[in-house]
Amino acid sequence: METVENFNKLNSIKRNEPLALIPTMGNLHLGHLSLIRHAKELNLSTIVSIFINPLQFGPSEDFSKYPRTLEADLDLLIKEDCDFVFIPDDKELLHDIKNLKAPLNNFLCGKSRPGHFDGVLTIVNRFIEVIKPEFCIFGQKDFQQQLIIKEHLKKINSNTRLLTHPIVRDKNGLALSSRNGFLSKPRREEAAKIYSYLKEISEHIFNYDQDEEKFLEYIKTLKDLYQKKFSEEGFEIDYLELVNALSLESLKIEDKKILIAVAVNYAGVRLIDNICLTRSIS
Ligand code: AMP
Q1: Which top CATH class is 178-278?
Q2: How many CA atoms lie within 13 A of 237 on its CB side?
Q3: Which residue spans of the chain are classified as CATH 3.40.50.620?
Q4: What is the pTM (predicted TM-score) of this model?
Q5: Catalytic positions, written as ranges
Q6: What separation in Å is there between the alpha carbon of 24 and the centre of ligand 1?
Q7: DSSP readout, 215-237?
Q8: In this predicted structure, what is the pLDDT of residue 281?
Q9: How does DSSP classify residue 80?
Q10: pLDDT tens digits, residue range 185-236?
Q11: Strand order through the sheet with 257-266
Q12: Which of 155, 220, 242, 244 has its CA 20 to 30 A from that of 262?
């Protein structure tokens, strides 16, 4: 694996196959590694960036606490046969950077983390400008993030195509996340309830066979019921939303692709998860 730390070296890397960029903030786990494996299955070269992006953290968020485990990350990348790791220099990366405004920002995490997606998009866009990869790969764990970047790439007519990969979970169902390390083992077991509830909600929607005219009412009842359940289990809800999975807007009766998305604070840690389902409407 070749380490790339500046733009100059980026320009000289040998590209035998099409290149897939996989942006990360490090503290790598199987969720990240699954993105590399996905690229390998498609015979793509891989460039993983490791950069804890200061622009995507709000003033009261956990930037300084975010886990930094570079040595272990590099070992994992070598074992995965990753081709390149990009560890940009802050100064070079941020110099004269174009600050972008993210689309689809008025929903879900965009509402509760002002500026977060602007920061994400600004940096990812910079990576794409300097690396010019044929593909970039994102996890569906950050569903809104991949949608925003896809929308942006379309808008700027980019040659980089976005690929996604499903959420990788712990045995108990908890979505893998670098922030899970802030939870004790018993708390991680309890946090698995997040996925159980999402699955229950999706099953209720899937099995809905009542009057279609009353579907949106039913959705509202489900949302209220599960907000209560989450709270009773000690989750402090930021949002629990059932929305159109393409636009993130409120559901309409005819919507087929539904996103069930949740963000909670649990034991002082922000956790997000989602399920995307397709309804067959007769
Ligand atoms: P992060 O390091 O948290 O910024 O994540 C980097 C990339 O890994 C993003 O595209 C995430 O969506 C993806 N990712 C993180 N956790 C998971 C997971 N559990 N399953 C699939 N992808 C993930």
Answers
A1: alpha beta
A2: 19
A3: 2-165
A4: 0.97
A5: 32
A6: 7
A7: HHHHHHHHHHHHHHHHHHTT-EE
A8: 73
A9: T
A10: 999 999 999 999 999 999 999 999 999 999 999 999 999 999 999 999 999 9
A11: 236-244, 257-266, 269-278
A12: 155
